[in-house]
């Protein structure tokens, strides 16, 4: 009922939702947008539930009156409770918001009730008293126990008894199949019997409880179930999928889990008493070491459970501590596992402490059996099952995740282990829990996870690396404020995911998990040995549960036991350890008839031998499964390698292309070079030709020059001849003129002509000499120049 | 004449080829690293991650169930960037059964203990052994003594941490998520010790 207090939390400094849970700042805006929708939905479902409950109450009038009859044996303030609850339902959510004066007080009361265990004890009726004089003040029946410890217990409201009955019958049926769990627990906890003589009473009590509730009512129920309860059941399912109203949630959940049938009077109190005794004594045996460990871990985790939640004050956290410690006592095969603190915390926010304990027991022992134990086997199995379902439903998405190297279990593991707490918004968590607790199995876990993948798969496919994919999915899941969409997608979209299907898949995958666990156990023997009784007990419960009790008498007939031991080589050491630890506590009351024992042990021996044979067979099976797994693993590795190689090939191709380009360029250059060479060659040839032509010319010129020189020489000769002729002529003429001496003018003319001739010859002579001296060491060209000048 | 110069240009391109491959293999400059944090419950694994990624410290952080994921990219002085994909695992002993899921294929493991708790130090040693047995053989391991701000309550000597780390060829550092002491240094040092693809 303390959930009423949630309304007052708006002015808390950190951002919190209407349940008092912390909101991530980045989602605060989204939350505000949705809070209106939530309110509308809440109003609607309050109406629906009210009319449903009224209708059911009418239709099952006989059975509920019968129920009241039983209730009257333990008188209580049912009527008053009924009245307040009907009031509350009528007011619906509006009373939450507008909180009239009356409800305000009620809220404060209920807050106090959760918080102030000891203080309020004065107001409460003592457990066994049937007077119930202060019922009017208190809705909760409480039990006062030694050391001022007050446990609170409230009966489920009558308007929910119809639901309660259906659900309780489920618990009973389950119990029959599972061999009476609580009884089994009592056997496994001999210290309870020793330290608490009361326990014997409570055990009888419980058996009575089971009997009285079991035989007559069961039959009645079975008679009614098919004709009358079928349609309400369907309707209830629809209602649950639409969400349980906030005000009813605590009690409806208890009804779903079957708290009334589970509860054993005084059991919780005894557990606590036992816990406080053993925590004071400083025992050093294996079991108290384990308890010490859990106690330490619980102590560490209590402040880290919904830190800062306003309803979990000091007293609230004391309740949390007691609940967790009591559970560890109740089921040492689980003890305490992180995540359980959150579940217990949530339950304590919704219901009184002992109710929360029994709800918690139902969830962990039944719904999540094997999940939170030392080896966490079932939770590992579920991950493999989920992965297979993912591959079946979303092959593309899984392919993409494979490609990125993301394992589905990385993400879904925490989802499953925390039952989505702290993973999706609270409204959605509670809606998922509504359905999960109603259905009584883990189907809703799978459906919800699949729905989340359906909603966010398309976005995931666009991611480029593992980190981005996981970050995106985490943040998208955290923003799943549309709780109705989530629940409807889960419930409508995955009808084929049924408990039967899951069981089948679990059977298929369990061997591989067990193999790995065993492998680890074998390797880490040293480490494991330091572990407490719990893990031993666990392994016993899972392979040899009945053996434990049956083995006790063998202390008497040791011989046979020895034979047994040799048959069970692998387990014997374990048994020894277990027996030793049990010996500390166990008492051998009276020795039964030895001969009977021998016969019985022989039978048992046969049975064990057979079991061994089947175990061997199964081991072989497991081996093949392992080989397959390894193959798969190899395949994964290989595909990764192939990818790597492909990338390498791509790189090399690129390099090759570049090389080719370079080669082409080189070729071009070479070609150009060749061309150039050709050009130069041509030029050379032409130059040579030129040279030849020039040589020829030189030759020609030389010849001409020679000719010219020869002709000059001839001319000189001729000149000389002409000179001599001229002299001779002159001599002759002078001789004649002497003789004539008259014509003076004529000889003057002749001299002038001669002078000219001589001058030309002299000039020519000088030139010829210089030309000859040059021609000896000059190029033909210069010679030819001279020649030309000469010409 | 022109041909000679063009050949020289070709040569320089050829020399440049391995460089260009370094650039082309962008991953040599931008590393992606899977990192897993292991260690006893309550030693501050989540706080270290939150301090490193968001720069925040919450003295009342909540219990980690299963594992949680965060990523953060840092730039080194040689202009390479390293993107850490950080898996922060649950500390309780029984969650060790799930740990292989997270440390398998991790390039870096950060094993954390609380300097005020000798138990957590021996738990750290368990993790180191487990990683040596089952982790990838070239995993880079760091041993981190957290809560260094609680020096007056110290119960694990610095030298013990150093010695153990040295024996197991690990990198050792003491940090405080509360005061942010050595948190960035831790991740930077890890980044420096990563094997580079270009070196291979």
TrEMBL record, chain A:
Compositional bias segments (type: Basic and acidic residues): 66-99, 137-146, 760-770, 780-791
Entry keyword Plastid: no
Biased composition (Low complexity): 120-132
Molecular function via GO: GTPase activator activity; small GTPase binding
Sequence intervals crossing the membrane: none
Record's protein name: Putative Rab-GTPase-TBC domain-containing protein
Keyword field: Coiled coil
Signal peptide positions (record): none
Coiled coil: 628-718
Region (Disordered): 56-150, 179-226, 734-791
Keyword field contains Cell membrane: no
Composition skew (Polar residues), residue ranges: 210-224
From TrEMBL, chain B:
PROSITE patterns linked: RAB, RAS, RHO
Keywords, comma-separated and alphabetical: Hydrolase, Nucleotide-binding
Pfam families associated with the record: Ras
Gene Ontology molecular-function annotations: GTP binding; GTPase activity
Full protein name: Putative small GTPase superfamily, P-loop containing nucleoside triphosphate hydrolase
């Amino acid at each position: 009922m303390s959930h009423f207090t949630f309304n007052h939390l708006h002015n808390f400094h950190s951002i919190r939702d209407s349940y008092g849970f912390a909101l991530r700042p980045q989602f605060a805006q989204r939350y505000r947008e949705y809070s209106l929708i939530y309110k509308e939905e809440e109003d609607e479902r309050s109406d629906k539930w009210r009319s449903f409950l009224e209708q059911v109450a009418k239709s099952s009038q006989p059975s509920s009156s019968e129920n009241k009859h039983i209730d009257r044996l333990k008188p209580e303030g049912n009527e008053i409770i009924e009245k307040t609850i009907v009031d509350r339902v009528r007011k619906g959510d509006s009373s939450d918001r507008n909180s009239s004066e009356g409800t305000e007080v009620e809220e404060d009361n209920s807050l106090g009730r959760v918080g102030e265990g000891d203080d309020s004890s004065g107001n409460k009726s003592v457990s066994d008293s049937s007077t119930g004089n202060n019922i009017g003040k208190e809705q909760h029946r409480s039990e006062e126990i030694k050391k001022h410890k007050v446990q609170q217990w409230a009966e489920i409201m009558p308007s929910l008894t119809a639901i309660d009955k259906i659900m309780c019958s489920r618990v009973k049926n389950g119990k029959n199949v599972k061999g009476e769990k609580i009884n089994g627990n009592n056997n496994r906890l001999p210290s309870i019997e020793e330290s608490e003589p009361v326990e014997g009473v409570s055990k009888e009590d419980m058996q009575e409880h089971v009997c009285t509730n079991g035989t007559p009512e069961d039959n009645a129920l079975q008679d009614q179930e098919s004709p009358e309860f079928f349609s309400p059941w369907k309707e209830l399912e629809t209602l649950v999928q639409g969400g349980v109203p906030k005000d009813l949630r605590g009690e409806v959940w208890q009804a779903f889990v079957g708290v009334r049938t589970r509860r054993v009077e005084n059991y919780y109190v005894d557990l606590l008493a036992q816990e406080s005794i053993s925590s004071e004594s400083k025992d050093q045996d294996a079991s108290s070491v384990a308890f010490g460990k859990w106690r330490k871990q619980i102590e560490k985790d209590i402040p880290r459970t919904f830190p800062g939640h306003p309803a979990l004050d000091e007293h609230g956290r004391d309740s949390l501590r007691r609940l967790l410690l009591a559970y560890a006592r109740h089921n040492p095969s689980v003890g305490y596992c992180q995540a359980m603190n959150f579940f217990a915390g949530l339950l304590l926010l919704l219901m009184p402490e002992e109710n929360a304990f029994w709800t918690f027991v139902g969830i962990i022992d039944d719904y999540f059996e094997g999940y939170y134990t030392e080896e966490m086997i079932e939770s590992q199995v579920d991950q493999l099952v989920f992965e297979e379902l993912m591959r079946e439903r979303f092959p593309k998405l899984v392919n993409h995740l494979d490609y990125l190297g993301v394992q589905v279990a990385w993400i879904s593991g925490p989802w499953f282990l925390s039952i989505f707490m702290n993973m999706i918004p609270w409204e959605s968590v509670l809606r998922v829990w509504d359905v999960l607790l109603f259905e009584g199995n883990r189907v809703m876990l799978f459906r919800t996870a699949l729905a989340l993948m359906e909603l966010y798969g398309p976005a995931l496919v666009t991611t480029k690396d593992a980190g981005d994919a996981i970050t995106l999915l985490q943040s998208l899941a955290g923003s799943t404020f549309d709780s109705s969409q989530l629940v409807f997608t889960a419930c409508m979209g995955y009808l084929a995911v049924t408990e039967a299907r899951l069981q089948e898949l679990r059977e298929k995958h369990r061997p591989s998990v067990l193999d790995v666990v065993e492998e680890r156990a074998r390797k880490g023997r040293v480490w494991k040995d330091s572990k407490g009784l719990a893990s031993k007990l666990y392994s016993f419960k899972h392979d040899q549960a009945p053996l434990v009790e049956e083995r006790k008498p063998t202390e008497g007939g040791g011989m046979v036991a020895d034979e047994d031991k040799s048959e069970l080589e692998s387990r014997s050491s374990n048994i020894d350890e277990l027996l030793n630890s049990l010996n500390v506590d166990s008492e051998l009351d009276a020795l039964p008839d030895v001969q009977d024992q021998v016969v019985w042990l022989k039978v048992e021996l046969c049975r064990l031998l057979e079991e061994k044979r089947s175990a061997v067979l199964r081991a072989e099976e497991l081996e093949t499964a392992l080989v397959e797994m390894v193959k798969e693993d190899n395949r994964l590795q290989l595909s990764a390698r192939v990818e790597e190689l492909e990338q390498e090939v791509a790189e090399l191709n690129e390099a090759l292309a570049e090389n080719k380009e370079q080669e082409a360029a080189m070729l071009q250059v070479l070609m150009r070079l060749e061309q150039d060479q050709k050009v130069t060659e041509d030029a050379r040839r032409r130059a040579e030709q030129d040279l030849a032509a020039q040589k020829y010319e030189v030759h020609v010129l030389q010849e001409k020059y020679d000719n010219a020189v020869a002709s000059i020489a001839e001319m000189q000769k001729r000149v000389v001849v002409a000179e001599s002729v001229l002299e001779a002529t002159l001599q002759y003429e002078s001789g004649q003129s002497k003789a004539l001496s008259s014509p003076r003018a004529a000889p003057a003319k002749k001299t002038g002509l001669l002078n000219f001739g001589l001058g030309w010859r002299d000039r020519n002579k000088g030139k010829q000499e210089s030309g000859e001296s040059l021609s000896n060491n000059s190029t033909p060209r210069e010679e030819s120049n001279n020649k030309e000048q000469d010409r | 004449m022109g041909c000679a110069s063009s050949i020289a240009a070709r040569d320089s391109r050829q020399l440049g080829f391995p460089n260009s491959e370094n650039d082309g293999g962008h991953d040599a400059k931008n590393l992606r690293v899977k990192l897993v944090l292991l260690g006893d419950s309550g030693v501050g694994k989540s706080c270290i991650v939150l301090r490193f990624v968001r720069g925040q410290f919450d003295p009342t952080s909540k219990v980690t169930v299963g594992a949680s994921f965060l990523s953060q990219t840092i730039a080194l002085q040689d202009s390479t960037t390293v993107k850490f994909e950080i898996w922060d695992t649950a500390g309780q002993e029984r969650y060790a059964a799930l740990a292989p899921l997270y440390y398998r294929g991790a390039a870096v493991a950060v094993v954390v203990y609380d300097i005020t708790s000798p138990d957590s130090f021996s738990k750290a040693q368990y993790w180191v052994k487990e990683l040596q047995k089952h982790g990838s053989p070239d995993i880079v391991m760091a041993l981190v003594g957290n809560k260094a701000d609680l020096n007056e309550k110290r119960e694990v000597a610095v030298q013990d941490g150093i010695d153990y780390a040295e024996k197991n060829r690990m990198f050792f550092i003491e940090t405080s998520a509360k005061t942010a002491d050595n948190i960035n240094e831790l991740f930077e040092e890890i980044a420096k010790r990563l094997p580079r693809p270009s070196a291979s």
